[in-house]
Design a protein that fits this description.
The chain has about 140 residues and is mainly alpha-helical. The chain has one domain: Zincin-like (2-Layer Sandwich). The chain contains 6 helices and 3 strands.
């Protein structure tokens, strides 16, 4: 009988580490504005998110920004919940397996997209931000 290697999928902590690394490659002028944003990695979206987003499956969403965008923030709105980015581990891993993309890039893409909502960016602006982050990451790796 042939013994196969056990494959252990990346954990919540592994995804969190990739997210922290992705934050580190944001351009400095944007990174300073993300200091108060809480990043949480969960297995799946909770029931409230499922209902609010009208999702048919918990695999239908990779991440979620919850909070008030910088464009809409006001000083008098202080005292509320912090801005949060949720990354959903199982849907991210499912996407990763289906596409074959590098997991680090998938996590970075989802994180940047959700942080983009914090800044009130358009999809085009988020694509530019992702390109800049990728260039920074490549420069650090070389």
């Amino acid at each position: 009988m042939r013994k196969t290697a056990e494959i252990i999928p990346p954990s919540l902590a592994d995804i969190d580490t990739l997210a922290r690394e992705a934050l580190g490659v944001l351009p400095e002028e944007l990174r300073e504005f993300t200091e108060g944003v809480v990043v949480l990695v969960q297995e799946f979206p909770d029931d409230a998110v499922m209902a609010e987003m009208e999702l048919e499956s918990p695999f239908d969403i990779l991440g979620l920004y919850s909070g008030v965008s910088l464009a809409e923030k006001r000083v008098e709105a202080s005292g509320g919940m912090p801005d949060m980015v949720f990354l959903y581990r199982r849907p991210i891993l499912d996407y990763w397996c289906e596409t074959g993309e590098d997991l680090k890039h998938v996590v970075r893409h989802v994180l940047i997209h959700e942080i983009g909502h914090h800044f009130g960016f358009s999809d085009e602006e988020m694509e530019t931000l992702e390109t800049i982050a990728e260039a920074e990451e490549n420069a650090r790796d070389n």
